[in-house]
Amino acid sequence: MSHDSHSHGHGGHGGHDAHDIQKTVRRYLMVFGALLVGTILTVCMYYVYFENPKLTIGVALVIASVKAFLVAGYFMHLISERKMIYSLMAATVFCFAGLMYITLWSMNPTSLIHWRW
């Protein structure tokens, strides 16, 4: 059997040696630790009072977004799908901005949506 028939020259193991596996396990443990910290922060935020409800919602959304990114990016292996993720994220931001514009526009009493025929 020639050297070319082996996958990546690692004896047919697809390039997964002990060092690669150890690095991957370490990464998963770090993500797990970050998710634990995020969960602790989420619980602690219940006891923190902000005067402004917008700030409370903003902090909660940031914590939830970071945790969602960690789960989707690392445990669902979406971090390596950069082009697709950025395309979907751009479409999501576009739709979100459009919906927020329509919502704010409809709240204006002088907007065309409130005009009586």
Could you please describe the fold and organization of this structure?
It is a single chain. It contains 3 helices and no strands. It has 117 residues and is mostly helical. It has 2 domains: 14-80; 81-117. Helix 1 (18-45) packs antiparallel against helix 2 (53-75). It starts with 17 loop residues before the first helix and ends in a 10-residue tail after the last helix.
Short key terms for the protein model shown above:
117 residues; mainly alpha
What's this model, at a glance?
This protein is mainly α and 117 residues long.
Topology readout:
Blueprint: H1 18-45, H2 53-75, H3 82-107
Helix pairs in contact: 1-2
Number-wise, the strands total 0
Number of helices: 3
Major sheet details: none
Provide the succession of SSEs.
HHH
Question: Which range does the strand content fall in?
Answer: under 5%
The assigned structural class equals mainly alpha
Mean pLDDT: 81
